[in-house]
Hints:
This protein is mainly alpha-helical. The protein contains four helices and no strands.
Amino acid sequence: MPRDTSVNRSAVSRSPNSLAWSMQVELAGEHATRMERLLVDLVIACWLEAKYLESVSADPGRGSLEVAGFRLKHLESAQKRYLGALKTLTSLRALAPAGLTPGQALRLHKEPECQRA
């Protein structure tokens, strides 16, 4: 049965930088706290590292078996860091009290109403 790969094709055709930017916007949300923004940056950095190491370790033509083993261990470590960063971000969001995270943008003053003449 043929699979629908339209999502995969669009993701492959985009550059890693544009994917990272869209992931950052989506993960951070509109009103992220400073800690959430730091963790989102960490998630994106770990994701970029893991993707780079996946592409490097996918080329079997370079180096010896020892080098391939080193690359695989490096990739596994990067994937663990990525998953750890995601876990930390989701834990922060689950444990943070709802009253301490901004739900909407704060307004310090009311907008002046137009006076009718």
